[in-house]
Amino acid sequence: MTAVYVVLGTIFGFILSRSGAADYDFIQGMFLFTNLQLYGIMGVAVLVGAPGIWLIKQRGRTLAGRKIDIELKPLHRGNISGGVLFGIGWSLAGMCPGPILVNIGEGKIYALAALAGALAGAGVFGTIYQRLQKPFALPALKVGTGEG
Amino acid sequence: MTLILNGLPPLHWALAGLGIAGVTLALLLIGSRRLGISTGFEDVCSLVLPAPYFRRPAVVSGRPWRLPLLCGLVLGGFLSAVLGGGWKPTWALGMFDTAIGLGPGGKLAWMFVAGLFIGFGTRLAGGCTSGHGIFGLANLERPSLITTLTFMAAGIVTTQVVYRVLFPLAGL
Questions:
Q1: pTM strictly above 0.90
Q2: What ipTM did this prediction achieve?
């Protein structure tokens, strides 16, 4: 199965690279409303993904017959405060998490610094999770803030 | 508008959106996995950090599929460059270069700080553009709608401030 995930990641990375989703100028264009390419991409992905996910959940089984079982994301105060911090970072870097990795693959050297920062940020978050739980009304440690 | 990568023309947005939906659905149908990249940062952290948060089953059990997916993203970017005019290391950053023109050291510092916001913010929010913005919205999850509207708004405000106020002032 490892190879399947590498292949799916490669296809995803190729599309992000060629569509503008991993391009600093297209990201700024989206936030400046001077280029609407990425709104179109996200809109189509969600509108096509929604009935697809519904159908697969109706089927209830993976191709190999395993039960489809996905965790829903919990609601907590971190959704908004974390969303604000992430939005600032996405704008400054011109990359969200997937495109950081795609840009490294493309040879954009500065993306390595964005990855170092992102790993440090996630590392600090996990290390102080128990101290953030109360102020941000975060779920129990076992649950976490949400996978994905 | 062309890509920074070798000045390539971008894929049509509808085609790109369809492709991303295809990958999302394939992950679910093949592996019962929900698309989400930022949890992968936790997976990487969990390889070296001992905090209880990184020992959770949700993190440790996700590593065997999410780490290969992350490696694929790097490979996809690499192939995209190789097949699209050639791969070479670059510092090019499009309109950032035109507006402010920081050197390599300045760019590394800028990107590291931005990365801190991304890493801490996505994990506090419980997901990023893929997990909340694509899968969560398509799966009609309310926390994902709240988070997506929030990070889109924060991105819009930040870019507007940076490009309409901060950089013009710095250029004076």
A1: yes
A2: 0.97
